[in-house]
Write a structure and sequence with these properties.
This protein is an alpha/beta fold. The protein is built from seven helices and 14 strands. The strands form two sheets. Strands 6-5-4-3-2-1-14 form a seven-stranded mixed sheet. Strands 7-8-9-10-11-12-13 form a seven-stranded mixed sheet. Strand 3, helix 1 and strand 4 form a beta-alpha-beta unit. The structure holds zinc ion (2 copies).
């Protein structure tokens, strides 16, 4: 599987880090992990095959994670590149995903559900498993961030695995969920003295990394307070595994 970081930042405007989105090319299909507002254009900027995107994962309803969904569907409705498309686009998300999109749609009769191709909204529960598309399995985990927020574990037919926490507070059971993952893509909003319990700071993230036994860890959802901090050097003081700082445009093989 190949991962491209589209947005390594947060809701705070930043010159080099746009808000949450990661493109996963699983060979047999593509999955967008969260769809922030900037993600809609970041996909094109990174040369991702957005007209043929197979599925979108919505981790929770904060706008730095889902704010691009309606604009993307407004784009696919009219773009020349999707006019001939007949393959369905699946949107997986927590319970309430369809209601959220319907409310946006009704705000001005956008007709977002009438696409050239079938649009399938699939709401998933915590601790459930489903097939994203043939060759990619997913399992979900309820995270202490919002009432609906979910982490996802993705496994391809060859056994390669990625765990994407999206936004989360600290809970040891997240380490169990990420056990032995090939890549543990974690949020690490803050360096230290986090102002809220519903995000992670570096010490939390490194504890989870150690407990999970993951082979590699990537830290994303980085607030501007990380600017000027050597994340890898700071991480190494707490854990001796491989830590990668997410940066917009970074590509990685899993
Ligand atoms: Zn959030
Ligand atoms: Zn966020």
């Amino acid at each position: 599987m190949k991962l491209t970081v589209l947005g390594s930042g947060t809701s705070v405007p930043h010159p080099r880090r746009s808000s949450s989105a990661h493109w996963l090319d699983a060979g047999v299909g593509s999955l967008l992990l969260d769809i922030s507002g900037p993600a809609v254009h970041r996909m094109a900027e990174e040369g991702c095959d957005w007209p043929n995107l197979d599925a979108v994962w919505v981790s929770h309803f904060h706008l730095d994670h889902v704010g691009g969904l309606a604009p993307f569907l407004f784009g696919t409705k009219y773009a020349p590149q999707t006019r001939e498309r007949r393959k369905p686009l699946k949107v997986f998300g927590p319970r309430g995903t369809e209601k959220l999109l319907r409310r946006f749609d009704e705000a001005d009769d956008y007709g977002l559900f009438e696409q050239p191709f079938p649009l399938e909204i699939k709401e998933v529960s915590p601790r459930s498993g489903f097939e994203v598309f043939a060759g990619l399995r997913a399992e979900t985990f309820s995270t202490p961030h919002t009432s609906e927020s979910l982490a996802v574990r993705l496994t391809d037919a060859h056994g390669a695995s990625l765990v994407y926490t999206s936004d989360t507070g600290y809970t040891e059971s997240l380490a169990d969920f990420a056990r032995g993952a090939g890549l543990f893509l974690m949020e690490c909003s803050f360096f230290r003295s986090k102002p809220v319990k519903t995000h992670l700071e570096l010490e939390d993230a490194m504890k989870l990394a150690r407990m999970s036994g993951a082979r590699r860890v990537m830290l994303a959802h980085l607030y501007p307070e990380w600017d000027g901090v050597d994340i890898q050097a700071e991480a190494r003081k707490l854990w001796d595994g491989e830590v990668i700082e997410a940066r917009d445009g970074l590509r990685l093989e899993i």
